[in-house]
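Loading example: each entry is read as two labelled lines plus one structure line.
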Amino acid sequence: MFNKLRIGKKGENIIFGTFVLLYIGWCVNSPDMNIESLKSVLTIGLSVGIIYGLVALGISLIYTGLDVVNFSHGEFFMIGAFAGLTMFNLLGNQDWIFNIFPDAYGWIIYVVCLFTAFVSMGLFGVFIERVFLRPLTKKGGGYTVAGMGIIICGFGLSVVLINVAYLIWNPVAKPFPAELGLPMEIGGLFLPITYIWMIVVGLSVAAGLWFFLNKTKMGLGIRAVAYSKDVSNLVGINVPLYISIIFGIACAIAGIGGTLVGPTYQVVVFMGYIILMKAFAAAVVGGFGNLPGAIVGGFTVGIFETASSFYISGSHKDLYAFLLMIVVLMIKPTGFFGVQVKMKA
Amino acid sequence: MLKINQLISGYGSVQILNGANMKVEKQSIVALLGGNGTGKSTILRAASGLIRSWKGTIEFDGEQIQNLPAHEIVGRGLVQVTQGKDVFPAMSVTENLKLGGFILKSKQQLLDNLEKVYNYFPRLNERKDQLAATLSGGELQMLCIGRGLMSNPKMIMLDEPSAALAPQIVLDIFKNINRIRQDGLTVLVVEQNVRMALLLADYGYVIKDGVINVEGDSKKLMYDESVKESYLGGTKANV
């Protein structure tokens, strides 16, 4: 009976489209529906979505490159936020920066913070991979799905990293008072500038990653390693080094995501967990292992979540991402872009 | 050029090679023959560093290379072209070839080599912007060999270049292997297609149960009774 439910691609799309239409209909019927609320739903959804997208990008990158799901990725996001915040506190009361750039003071400090988070989390990711994950690959399984040890290690690492962060920064939520300027008016809507920053920086990072992967020699090597470690070895790519690079880049992107979220919400030790879960949902929705899919999935989860909490019920905000994931897995298990290039027989 | 001495190796705890000896002279074509599961591919995988050598030595160009990381062996000029037409399906033909020249430092060298490979295999030039996934079996094999040539190797090891190909294409590929040798490379070719391989090669080795069973001049080997028996099962069906 269930075999009959396995329908072709076209059928999947029709059923999924029906669901989308039903959902839109539900939202339109809501008493809160008007053009103003729609505008804010879209901007908030997009800005939250790009954060989910960035973390999902890292999860997908590690999944394609190392063939394991990194369950400690949320903690890299959290520590990245703390790295940015630490840099911000260091620079925050330096008068000489203010004297040199009186106008763009806040922006320059913030960009330095983003850069710090990127670099420090990149190095930290390489360190974690080399010290904690690499020895596990020697005991069998390697970087394959069979390498269950690495997945379990990811859970353990998550707990350890949270507790280390707890020791260093204590569990009090900290504000990240970046001075980025006054709210901006876009289409009659006053938006905190941090939302715009999130979308702009997030999309630039995604575009930068695309350029890096597709136009540079190192990116070519990364794509090769992601497809096959053996063949990459045979063309002379230093595979262990490239695996470290992949892990480092994924963590660096998560770090940027953390610093981007900081000024809008707050920086707290436990912020990584829920982001990991939602980014996971975003990666599944976009097609697991597909990089543009991760960003699109992030936007979809972000908008769906914001719209649902606006129009349906705000008290179950964290539920919607997983609801969407379940619906996508039921109807379109490959996600939006989860198409693999098959070899011609 | 390549000298394998008492090589013992295998996968996990399963020992496949039980002390294989072989030697490949410079600018020659050597055929390594044997049935399924006799350790032909294992020798190549050990030589190119994909698996560890447990015992014995592998000497390339006068230096011992056993248990070096695979990418360093490629850097020294020993390249393996794998069985099963392992290309990167989601990349274009040109990108696949450029990956072959990954260890090259200069861009000009890369372009020169690309030109050289297109010269060997004009079919690849016609399809250079296509995804590798859309190529036919023969074109895939050409792409694999071309990718192996991209890094300026001194010696190239081919793992069953004729597997699952039409006779006409096999002939074409073997002609090109001969051309590669004439341009100064050393070739080690692992084959199941005995007749073709021995026609092409100067010298042949027959491997059985992880040791070299018979060796000799390829013309002699072709009429050797023990080869026919141990390898062709006593019939001439494959000849």
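Residues 1-7, 340-345 of chain A have pLDDT under 50 and may be disordered.
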